[in-house]
Every structure is written in C-alpha cells, then in structure tokens.
Amino acid sequence: MKQFGRQWQVAISNDSETLIIDSLRVAFEIDKTINDKPNPATFQIWNLNRNHINQLLSQSFKKIALSVGYQTLRQIYLGEITKVKVKRDNLDFILFLECSDGHQAYTQSMAQTTLKSGATDEDIIKSLQQTMPTVQAGTIDVPNKRKLPRGRVLNGDSREIISKIAKNNNADWSIQDGNLVFLPRDKVLGDEVVLLSQETGMINSPEQTDDGLELSCLLNPALQIGGLVEVRSILDYFNGQYKIVKLSHQGDGLGGDWVSKLTVVGGKFEKVKSGEK
C-alpha cells in the first residue's frame, strides 16, 4: 500500500517566536522507547534562510516539533534542540539539529518538598511532575493505592524517585512528546488500536527477537509508545495484539518511503481508563 498526500511541518520555537517550515526539504530520524531515557531525534533542513540559521546557531530557538500526515497533520515529536551545526554542500546549506525529548527535565529536575500523611504514589508522581516545568502530566496510572502513614520529606533527583515508584508498581515511566507517562506493564494507552497489515502499510514479515516482535510499516502517526497494535500477518503465528515498547520514524521530504519501525511485546493488556491521567 502507498500512502499518498503526505505532508510535514516542522515548528521551531522560543518563548516569543515560532518558525514554521513546511516547504523546504527536511529529513528526520526519531527514536522512542518506553524507558525513562529522553527520546532522541535528528533533523536535517536544507537551505533555511541565513537569518534563521544564525538564530539557531546562537541557540535562540530551543524547541522543535514535527507533525506529519497524509491528509491531516499529527504531531509525532516534541523536544528540545540540544546541538546545532551547519554544512555547505555545493550550493546547499544543510542545517543539522540534534534533539532530545524531556532532556532538561530529566537531567536537572530536583525535588525538595514535604509530603503530608495520606499521600499516595500518584500524588508523589504529580508533585514530582511539578518540578519539571517543561513537562505536562500525561497518562498516569498507578496501581498501588497505598497511603503514607505519616509525613515524609522528598529530596533528590526527580527522575530517580519516579523510577523507584515505577519499580514498586511494576510500571514504566517516560517523557513522550513533553508529557510524563506512567504506565503499568500489563496496561496500554486507552487510544485507538492500530491495525498493521499489508493493506495498511506493513512492510515485509514480522521478525521475532529477544526484545519482542519487530515490525516495519509506512510511517503511521497513530503509533505511540505504550499503545496497542493488532498485527495481521500472512503468517498466522504472528497475529494478535501487542504493546509498543520501541518506536522509530524516519523520512526525507525529497522522496522515498517514510518508515516506522517498532518493537512490540505480547501479553494480556488492559486499557487505561480515559479518566486516569
């Protein structure tokens, strides 16, 4: 299957200005995982005007968002620009951007507060999210409803405290497109189930690996870390529903297929209720 009418939009911004790029050549590679490490991405942009190149080199722009689609746009990446360089190739100026989703929040956020008795793990996570000013609360589903019997001082790296809570709840936490997501390993996001088949853009046959089932398809913006996919392969053995634990997108506006690659794991999964956030 070919997915026609593809389009893209890159938005580069600071607190007062947003630069929209939707007609220049752009190439991108995005990697996402369900673990807590910031999701990296690289972008190449051809022949941006000199003024905007200078602004990026001087780090005037801090944020980047990529939206893609085939009739309508859907955001597939939001992150911080961490490194910028430019290269000249004959008449072309190519801008290289290295990016990270939640980098500042992950590396710099510190907790220093006192929790009241009766606080739950979910209360603690939401308190820690407040120490990450660039991160919003996404899907937060905490199975353990225990309450603190007495007040407690919370002090240390926010990420380390959340990681301990995740371990105690058999859950994963991550920052996905600027949202803090806390998801038990036996649950999936409450969004749509994405069907992957030859008819919907699956490329070749699934491959079993130590990390799970690996799949490739034409780039699909509906795919999300922690989301549920239904696989319909020519080989019945692989058919079923799986949870996405790794996801990458790559494409080039000049041409060629835009591709999503994902690693998924099987099991019995319950959808997070819509009110749990």
UniProtKB/TrEMBL annotation:
Pfam families on file: E217_GP41
Superkingdom: Bacteria
NCBIfam families xref list: orf58_phage_fam
Protein name listed in UniProt: Phage protein D
Organism: Canicola haemoglobinophilus
